[in-house]
Amino acid sequence: xxxxxxxxxxxxxxxxxxxxxxxxxxxxxxxxxxxxxxxxxxxxxxxxxxxxxxxxxxxxxxxxxxxxxxxxxxxxxxxxxxxxxxxxxxxxxxxxxxxxxxxxxxxxxxxxxxxxxxxxxxxxxxxx
Length: 128
Known about the structure:
signal, four-stranded antiparallel beta sheet, alpha+beta
């Protein structure tokens, strides 16, 4: 009986450890851009912050969110270190870094582009 349970227990521990690591993985990574180091999403697209956002609250909804798609979080996502999850006006979850909600820019068409930096003097590359 012990020989049968041991692999089963080890497999269960491995699954639990993998799930824990997946939940604590940062939702973005750092990359070099022409503006210096920046946070980028899983596709390598530059992330931005919006000056009109309050700490932990997005002010970018409707047409704004169509032009500046939020970095969405799964409903089960949880805060870790500098990363937090905020609730948008529509109830969806969005990632924030150091309290600042994060967005991509529809006019950035390939990884590493930073064409959204400085738009209307309120959008900025999210720096680590």
